[in-house]
Write a structure and sequence with these properties.
By secondary structure, the protein is an alpha/beta fold. It folds into two domains: 3-93, Alpha-Beta Plaits, CATH 3.30.70.2190; 142-317, Vaccinia Virus protein VP39 (Rossmann fold, 3-Layer(aba) Sandwich). 28% of the residues lie in helices and 29% in strands. The chain contains nine helices and 15 strands. It has helices at 12-25, 65-75, 77-81, 143-155, 171-178, 190-202, 254-259, 261-267, 284-296; strands spanning 3-10, 30-35, 53-60, 89-93, 106-109, 113-116, 127-130, 161-165, 182-187, 209-216, 237-239, 247-251, 276-283, 299-307, 310-317. It has an eight-stranded mixed beta sheet with strand order 11-10-9-8-12-13-15-14, sandwiched between helices. Helix 5 links the parallel strand 8 and strand 9 (182-187). The chain starts with a strand and ends with a strand.
Length: 319
Amino acid sequence: MSWIELSLDATGEGVDWVYSLLAKTGFCPEIRIDRYSSTNLTNLSSPTHTWEFHICLYLASDIQVYSQIQVIENSFHSLQRTGLVTQIREKLVEQIPVTGNVWVNVQEIGEKFAIAKSHNPGLGDRMIIKTRPSLAFGSGFHPATILALQLMERHIQEGMRGLDLGCGSGILSVALAKLGTQVLAVDNDAIATQATREMVIDNNVETQVTVKQGSLGSGSDLGHWLGGDIHRGEDLTVIPATANFDFIVANILGRVHIQLASEYQQALRPSTTGGILITAGFNQDMESEVESALSQNGLRLIDSIYLDEWVGFVHQCGF
């Protein structure tokens, strides 16, 4: 069988958007991702731009392939306009190359975590989050995911019980479990909840993570975090905002944080060490609006970090 290879370069943020937009097309191409290193920067399609990853998609060369290519190209136009990916290059190949990684081998994040395909003894005492490619948001390359992981290792304590709101690929849920917590992972989208269940099994944390399709309070009425239609696989579960959680981690859009600010406060259990809200998924354009909405609902800002234009907050619910 022949294949059409579609290749493009991307930033770390762009990788997540490629996966999310592919999910909307309904196509499931074979995917290869490689990280550029300082020794192969000359291979970049645009030497004036710093690209982090090279992505190849493989579609079976059949009667439908060119209509599929057109849909994918149209889906990526917004990413190209904003400088997150390059133009797509295409060529005919006789087989999918066995060289290259189905997923980037290792991504070390913060002081405690590493995202990898399998156990790697060279990572020492880092907590390894085993991943596989999925069409859910949260590859581990997006700056917002990195910020959330860094804040989690600072503020989440063993024995806590909390909520991963908008769990996406499941990376944050698994990381929370590896920090010794009990986690309820929820997302409005069935693709995301399926990806999270798979990652939970891959990382042997099934006894610590419960996965449901749904959201906190009115979040179930807000649709897909990224816009568009929800991939419904089951009835949406509404999680009541009734002081049940020691922490909430939410790596979702800024407008959703603003909408749910009062329900965050109501869902957290106040304590001297708990009542922790970690928010990410928004940039500095939304920073003041998100902080204002949270503080007006009794959540006190105790930590914040930045990566490029992206922001991560930690708030605490007082007594």
